[in-house]
């Protein structure tokens, strides 16, 4: 299992590096739309939508992403920033208020339509953030994604080695507080290395932001685990050997990238 996870992760990393720095903007946008569509297909299964409902859900998601691309190409920069910030505000509401309340209260939403709406609030801002952060710089997007990966790796190995105290046993029995501590430690080392190479801001602020980032990543990971548990499945799909589906690989990115993009765009908007 670990071997297949590592092989798949290395292949995905090489593919990402290849497309991140070489694809023209239009092709990158098309790739992001495809990723959002794959996530929507997997989410439709978790939401227990019937075949026709899944097709409608995918069509509406595609229409929303294409509408955003059209809007960006035809409207002014202030209008674009305003619309993007409103979408990121929905994501912030989801991850900072709704999802924590959802998990604390152990909500079970049986309505597939309502679950589909949650999927839009989860996936569309993530796709938009991948476009916006790439537009700022492919390096910015890569470094932010790498922070999540480093946290995931640190949590995985420290949890396997030292894990005893369960983080949320009713949602994901395998996750432990020791894993979270390992993620914090790994991210701290990562930030120190990146800051040493690119000393672009005060180190304490960057560290605080990174630790907060780990908290968001944990929430994203736990939320997808809760949805999978509700759906009665182990993985969201079988697309990635050793990892499951696309959602299993980007769960922590859905709760982090939109808020990072919001902070960066707020700086531009002000």
Automatic annotation (TrEMBL):
Keywords: Cell membrane, Lipid biosynthesis, Lipid metabolism, Membrane, Nucleotidyltransferase, Phospholipid biosynthesis, Phospholipid metabolism, Transferase, Transmembrane, Transmembrane helix. The keyword Transmembrane helix applies. It comes from the Bacteria. One of its GO terms (biological process) is CDP-diacylglycerol biosynthetic process. GO terms for molecular function: phosphatidate cytidylyltransferase activity. The chain crosses the membrane at residues 6-37, 49-71, 83-105, 137-158. It is a multi-pass membrane protein. Its EC number is 2.7.7.41. GO terms for cellular component: plasma membrane. InterPro entries: PC_trans. It catalyses: a 1,2-diacyl-sn-glycero-3-phosphate + CTP + H(+) = a CDP-1,2-diacyl-sn-glycerol + diphosphate. The keyword Cell membrane applies. It is found in: Cell membrane. Pathway: Lipid metabolism; Phospholipid metabolism; CDP-diacylglycerol biosynthesis; CDP-diacylglycerol from sn-glycerol 3-phosphate: step 3/3. Pfam families: CTP_transf_1 (PF01148). It is an enzyme of class 2 (transferase). Belongs to the CDS family. PANTHER family: PHOSPHATIDATE CYTIDYLYLTRANSFERASE. This is Phosphatidate cytidylyltransferase.
